Amino acid sequence: MPRSKTGDVAIKAARRRALAIKYRLSGKTLEETAALVRSDLGDECPDGYNRAWVHRDLSRELERLASERIDDLTQLREVQNARLDALLAACWSTAMAGNLAAIRTAADLVERQARLYGLMTAKLALKLEPPDFDEQKWIDNREHRLAAAMQLLNLAPGTEP
Predict the structure, then answer these.
(1) Which of 62, 61, 14, 3 is CA-nearest to residue 41?
(2) Taking CA 75 as the corner, what is the angle to CA 72 and CA 78, rounded to the nearest 5 degrees?
(3) Which of 27, 28, 57, 142 is exposed most, by the fewest CB atoms within 10 A?
(4) Which residues lie below 8 Å from residue 147, measured CB to CB, with a gap of 6+?
């Protein structure tokens, strides 16, 4: 059975970890931090609270903070993706009808979504493309992307239906 996140043990651990972070941020060593936390918490501090305990407390708190940050970034990415989806839906039918400006807009939106999800990294592009592929040149070359979109729509370059 998992431990309670609001139980007495969890609250004491959170208080202890907050103190450990406070003292480490102020420049105290692990040993000094352990002594100060023991002094501040008295009987609430576990028996044998020492350098190793401080290290473990700091590591767990940093992992928790990193996890919260990842959750926040995931939520932000989902909001941004929903916005891009709405914009793409607004121009999609016009792009599919062959309007070059709408095709450019749709291609840019799809590219932004790919970047949002890390699909446009140099490492990934190099795995997908031949060794002489220059990712920056491809990114900078809007005409190349437009020609690829037009090819998908079976349009000849420079024409508009």
Answers:
(1) 14
(2) 150
(3) 27
(4) 157
Distance CA 52, CA 47 (A): 12
Tokens coding 10: 């969890």
pLDDT tens, position by position, 93-106: 999 998 999 999 99
Copy the structure tokens of residue 66: 């990193």
Q: What is the pLDDT of residue 126?
A: 47
Rounded to whole angstroms, the Cα distance separating 144 from 117 reads 22
CA distances (Å), 127 to each of 35, 78, 135, in order?
52, 26, 11
Q: Which helix (H) or strand (E) holds 69?
A: helix 51-96
In the chain, the amino acid numbered 123 is K
Write the DSSP string, 31-49: HHHHHHHHHHHGGGSPTT-
Q: How far apart are CA 52 and CA 160, in angstroms?
A: 70
Cα dihedral 71, 76, 78, 81 in deg (nearest 10): -150
Cβ-count burial 46-78 (b if 16+ within 10 Å, e if not): eeebeeebbeebbeebeeeeeeeeeeeeeeeee
